[in-house]
């Protein structure tokens, strides 16, 4: 369909697919033969993953991949080699017209920014099928050295709050306050009732303990120190990455950044670094 961008948000247990501008994505569960093609956000079985991508475009969206524009989400663990191999398949085998890949945490932040407040800095708590990641984003850029991973689908709030605290305190001091104030939940394993409240309580407890220890060091127990914790839990946070991708694909950024098939054939995958 000319002019439309197919947004593919691939997860370990399935995908969310749709055209940019659609209100919500279609759930595309991997067939039994494709299960295990991804694990912890990384492609493990390329043959199965490639067939799954075909299924998403042809089966679920009803489009011929050749000539289609695609926005693909990627994991924080995706390597350049994986992006290169992905681009080669989409351009050389499927013949898509344009392709761009964006980290799912960046897209979740885009969704929250559009729905609740204009912000390009936040701590994205991404709960997937096999991995929970805590990802600090500052001025639209991921602080890779501060990212924390917990290898379980749903992590209890005390353990997760400790990882969040570690991620924030390994980030530059001048952005810590903004990270505490913009904690964004994304992904299906963050949807449990009361999860955001429990997480807020656990992290606030750590902040209070840290502040008390600091005031004791100062010798001034009445000193006002510490941070305000704000956990945002949007209603459709399980689809946050796809919804953010839809917004991204409708904007000027996609038009400017997306690599065309002609450009890829001329210069290769360097644009995907």
From TrEMBL:
It holds the Pfam family Actin. InterPro entries: Actin, ATPase_NBD. SUPFAM superfamilies: Actin-like ATPase domain. It comes from the Eukaryota. Belongs to the actin family. PANTHER family: ACTIN. This is Actin, putative.
